[in-house]
Design brief:
Elements lengths: L4 E6 L18 H13 L4 H9 L10 H23 L4 E4 L2 H9 L5 H13 L8 E5 L7 H4 L4 E7 L2 E6 L1 H13 L4 E4 L11 H11 L10 E2 L10 H4 L2 H5 L8 H12 L5 E5 L8 H4 L2 H4 L4 E4 L10 H16 L2
Parallel strand pairs: 1-2, 1-8, 2-7, 8-9
Antiparallel strand pairs: 3-5, 3-6, 4-5
Helix pairs in contact: 1-2, 1-3, 3-4, 3-5, 5-8
Length: 328
């Protein structure tokens, strides 16, 4: 019987939560080691990031890009290392937004400390570049044609009827009004910037210059790109612009995940590990026939949002690792 491949799903901006994965700190050795190392790498910002991460009252601060992105990077990377230490390296890495940078580190394209430093410097320099916001909308892009004519753009395709729009604050205010009149469910994502839109092109260029000073190498694991919805090639991996430009381009998360589920989900099946603190990365997969009626399965690595940062994090992680050891 062919073994099911393990896919690690890594979150990006919008999935950050207060005390996300903090229940593993001081409990899971590999997770703790890498989180502490990242806080050191972040230098003068490390202490503040640690304080915000551990503070149960940090709801406002954790949504700031200068906080959310380094923390999402650090937590995602530490979780990936913890999974590798506890049950072996995942076969496929699939990251959403900043999660794709985490995947690049876990696949040894970049040295973790070097990329973390470049990424943290990049978000500090965002300032007013691409100021705006993002809306998660329960509709397809085709159903949002009127809203897209206002200047909003599709920032992410997260699943069937799971579309994220990005734009300036004024544009999104108009879009919100239109959607509410149409009785379409929506949710504001904590971002402060119109990520994955043309407004971020100047920031992408600066980030590309930063990454050009690093030494990327070919991936040592399969990275399913949410920029192209296919595996990252060796040529793409060593191109700094490939990684930098994704912040100004739409995230094709669902096309990438659906491609895996369509090709391997029914035979032999996939084990999907959801590293998001809100368990959002596997929502679309749960409705796919490979999970509904096939041999594929979904396993959260962290507790539900309402129990984030508690002992429930360690319980969820242990349960997922047990599945990997059992092979079921």
């Amino acid at each position: 019987m062919t073994r099911r491949r393990v896919v690690l799903l890594l979150p990006g901006q919008g999935a950050q939560r207060v005390r996300m994965a903090a229940g593993l700190h001081g409990v899971q050795p590999e997770f703790t080691r890498w989180m502490d190392e990242m806080f050191t790498v972040f230098g003068a910002d490390g202490d503040r990031l640690r304080d915000v991460w551990l503070d149960p009252g940090s709801a406002g601060a954790v949504d700031e890009a200068v906080v959310a992105q380094p923390l999402l990077f650090a937590v995602g990377h530490a979780l990936g290392r913890a999974v590798r230490s506890a049950a072996g390296a995942p076969d496929v890495l699939l990251g959403h937004s900043v999660g794709e940078l985490v995947a690049a580190c876990l696949a040894d394209v970049f040295a973790p400390a070097e990329l973390a430093t470049a990424m943290a410097g990049h978000v500090r320099r965002l300032d007013d570049t691409g100021r705006g916001g993002m809306l998660a909308v329960a509709a397809t892009a085709e159903e949002l044609s009127a809203e897209l004519r206002t200047g909003a753009v599709v920032a992410a395709d997260n699943g069937p009827r799971q579309t994220v729009l990005a734009g300036s604050d004024s544009v999104l205010a108009a879009v919100r009004g239109q959607l509410e009149r149409r009785d379409i469910t929506l949710r504001t994502l904590g971002s402060g910037h119109a990520f994955h839109s043309p407004a971020m092109v100047p920031a992408a260029r600066r980030f590309g210059q930063d990454l050009g000073r690093l030494r990327p190498g070919p991936p040592r694991a399969t990275i399913m790109s949410t920029r192209t919805a296919r595996p990252v090639s060796a040529e793409e991996a060593v191109d700094p612009a490939f990684w930098a430009d994704q912040i100004s381009l739409p995230v094709r998360y669902w096309p990438a995940l659906r491609s895996l589920l369509d090709s391997e989900g029914l035979d032999p099946g996939l084990v999907l590990l959801d590293a998001s603190a809100d368990r959002s990365l596997a929502v679309a997969a749960r409705g796919h026939r490979a999970v509904l009626r096939g041999p594929s399965s979904v396993h959260p690595l962290l507790a539900r949002s309402d129990r984030a940062g508690t002992a429930a994090d360690a319980e969820a992680f242990a349960a997922a690792v047990a599945v990997l050891h059992s092979g079921t």
